[in-house]
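Recap slide: Coenzyme A biosynthesis bifunctional protein CoaBC, sequence and predicted structure.
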Amino acid sequence: MRIVLGVSGGIAAYKACLVLRLLTEAGHEVTVVPTRAALRFVGTATWEALSGRPVATEVWDDVPGVAHVRLGQEADLVLVAPATADLLARAAAGLADDLLTTTLLVARCPVVLAPAMHTEMWHHGATAANVRTLRDRGVHVVEPASGRLTGTDSGPGRLPEPEEIVAAALARVPEGAATGRRADGSPVDLAGRHVVVSAGGTREPLDPVRFLGNRSSGKQGYALAAEAARRGARVTLVSANVDLPAPEGAEVVDVETGLQLQDAVHQAVADDADVVVMAAAVADFRPAAYATRKIKKEHGPDASEAPVVELVRNPDVLAGLVADRGDRDRPFLVGFAAETGDDQGDVLQHARAKLERKGCDLLVANEVGPGVTFGQDTSTVHLLRPDVADVRTVGPTGKDKVAAAVLDEVVSALGT
């Protein structure tokens, strides 16, 4: 497995030598990327001798090889130990002023940071905010140990022991990431891909206490995000009013309304998305006007009828993505259609019409109704692709199995 070991400038840098030794003895290919400050504690010769590989700190090193991009692109894991308060701040801000921070920006593999600093620095509000930001983006920040620090000081902020750091880091890598398969033989076939998933149901506010919404629980979207992350993808999950724990490894962006969801999805797509799965139930309409105060019902003999709420159409997010993509083949677009069937046609007839109308690459038609799909742990879906005559039906089965089937279709279409 290809690992980038970042080392920032703290006295605990000497422990990174032991981390490096453990990783290389386990057979991993490790490239050490120290900061300029780290080299004041441990020199280049030590890192090169222990890793057997050249060491660089600047983006100007190996310019023809474009190392500041290549290292992050090719890595299966990026581990920074120690990660100082300064490194956490620069990573959270997205700065790219040396080889290590540019590598962190490029990396789409698991990223693990092992902080080490004085207790006061670890407890400072700025550091706490930076850690929250990084964790919200899917970075795994190891909790520091408590114990003896520099001098006579003692408390939280001590770098964990090398064995603990290595175990925590390797646990973040999908099984078989270097070989493309897990221990059970199943694939890690979305490694290096950016998958955007929308989940839940939007709420369109009418007044401070009322909204137009729907019954979507977000379970299917969350299952898709979890499965994509398990397959090695970098996952952005745009979550609309979902009360579920965040899937492991996914960056969650919380939204409420259809317009907010549209903006969040488009922003995520602009960040080099390879696949977009629109599993959220976006309200077709929203109130034309928002009442800043609760709408009261009138009382008495002269009370008028109930007020009339004027609605306007919400944008079709999936159709907008199709239009923005144009003739390009990325991102691969997956739409969801909740169908019941009616006098005009059954579920599949409506789904085929929607697939043609939407222009997406894969349509997942959900059979819905009282006690079916919404809020439930099982679903029945039909998978339709414009270039494939056969329809694949999955279920009734668990939403995790549906997620796996959907992503199998995606991987098949992508040819990975």
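Residues 2-170 form a domain with the Rossmann fold fold (CATH 3.40.50.1950).
The mean pLDDT is 86.
(End of recap.)
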